[in-house]
Write a structure and sequence with these properties.
Shape of chain A: globular
Radius of gyration of chain A: 18 Å
Oligomer: homodimer
Largest sheet of chain A: 4 strands, antiparallel
Number of strands of chain A: 10
Strand content of chain A: 15-25%
Largest interface: A-B, 50 and 50 residues
Number of helices of chain A: 9
Structural class of chain A: alpha+beta
DNA sequence: GACCTTTGGTGTGGAATCGAACACTTGCTT
DNA sequence: AAGCAAGTGTTCGATTCCACACCAAAGGTC
């Protein structure tokens, strides 16, 4: 296996670190593959490891104690899963599961917390990402309150698209329904609309983004805030160089 | 004016500090009254001051660039408004406005950031509160996706009740509609239901909490997570000594 | 090729909420 | 006392989405 270095690290958050800070982290980082559906951190369970995805997408799903649930955010190679452990939070209310399989750099939560106590730059970077993640959550709250399923679907596809290579997203209507907290048949109708307008192409178990620009326009204001926030306070968000537009 | 001390400080977050940390903050804190409707921090505007409420309630409202808006959180004397400034975030996507008038301790955002760089305990406390606030946001997202207006209204009343003295909340149906992102008439119907069940008493411009326990049961799982999280990672939440129950 | 599971397409009835309108009440202002 | 604005009660058709059901198509397995 290639030795991990700042140059070959594909997690955008870690890439923001300066050499000395990175060197403190490096010996504790381990590359681990996660398959589709794998749970990375369970809800209300001690956080053992913190995860920095290099590829793939992790979904954050909140389930209330009466069983209703919704996706409240997604994290890809631009961020970190379980970052709150850096300031001593030992469990999370939501669970984090791989929605698109990929590779993550992991580190013991305890070690990360110690490092954050000693290295203010690492602490600050994670704090800022947690802030972006919170921004994503509040925009999700806004979207759930005020936007139609079609607009929310478009938003979700864009957020996914930001975090993968290429234009094809593998998922079923059923899964999308769970993510958006709507019936599967409602998703079917919404995808038909988007496909009818030529914005996406839908195949069995796969959706292809065709016209990203128009998709973005269709979301109204439901997409973009956390992406802009990321670029402002952390760094480049989409590797392709194509910045998220508000 | 009484000299500010750890003993007479009514902000629960600051009360968590140890004497030396508090003494670093003290000379920079100023008590300011805010009236109903006052904006404390505007959206996308440089954060000048950070606010620690001692009484009153501050609403966090997010508005998308196409004009739709929703309340995504509230902060009272248990927390801080603009705490993200502590890790160098210079603007917020949402605006923060006083929903119930009250007094706040304010500090220059810049000075707070410097203090957080030097005092890890202060930094950690604020980071943890930001985590609780994020938890509130994700529960709002879940509530907006999966709960009825009646359940969300009950949740909102409980959250308000947690942050005031007494059982009376002054507000209009119109205002509630804005907060919950529903029509005013929908609020009227929902309050009738709650009043019919004897859980609240509604008067012109005022709602009185009558049966808190039942109200809590009615919310299903929409209420409670951030409150439990606060008690777990920060400290006592409701002064009355009556802990939030999940 | 037969079978079976997964996924997608479609329809129906009903609940929740919207959007908009109008009347009534309350309390303040003049 | 009259007038007015703000807050509330109420109605009603339109819309979105739920809840449930059932069938069709695709793709894997034997």
């Amino acid at each position: 296996m290639l030795k991990l270095s700042l140059e070959n690290c594909r997690n955008l958050l870690i890439s923001q670190l300066k050499e000395p800070d990175f060197e403190v982290l490096r010996p504790h980082l381990e590359r681990i593959d996660r398959a589709r559906g794998d749970t990375v951190i369970s809800a209300s369970t001690h956080i053992e490891h913190v995860w920095f995805p290099e590829s793939g997408i992790c979904s954050l799903v909140l389930t209330s104690n009466d069983g209703r649930s919704a996706e409240i955010g997604i994290v890809g190679r631009e961020g970190v899963v379980g970052g709150a452990a850096a300031f001593g939070v030992d469990t999370l209310p939501h669970s984090s599961l791989m929605q698109v399989p990929g590779t993550c750099l992991t580190i013991s939560a305890e070690i990360l917390r110690d490092i954050c106590d000693r290295r203010p730059e690492v602490n600050r970077l994670i704090s800022r990402f947690q802030h972006v993640l919170a921004t994503q959550a509040i925009q999700t709250a806004l979207a759930n309150a005020n936007y139609t399923v079609e607009e929310r679907l478009a938003r979700w596809l864009l957020m996914c698209h930001d975090r993968i290579d290429g234009n094809e997203i593998e998922l079923t209507h059923d899964f999308l329904g769970t993510m958006l907290s709507v019936r599967r048949s409602t998703v079917t109708l919404a995808t038909h609309h988007l496909e009818g307008a030529g914005l996406i192409r839908a195949q069995r178990g796969r959706i292809t983004i065709v016209q990203r620009e128009k998709l973005q326009r269709l979301t109204g204001g439901a997409y973009g805030m956390p992406e802009v926030e990321y670029e402002r306070i952390i760094g480049p968000f989409r590797q392709s160089g194509q910045a998220a537009r508000c």
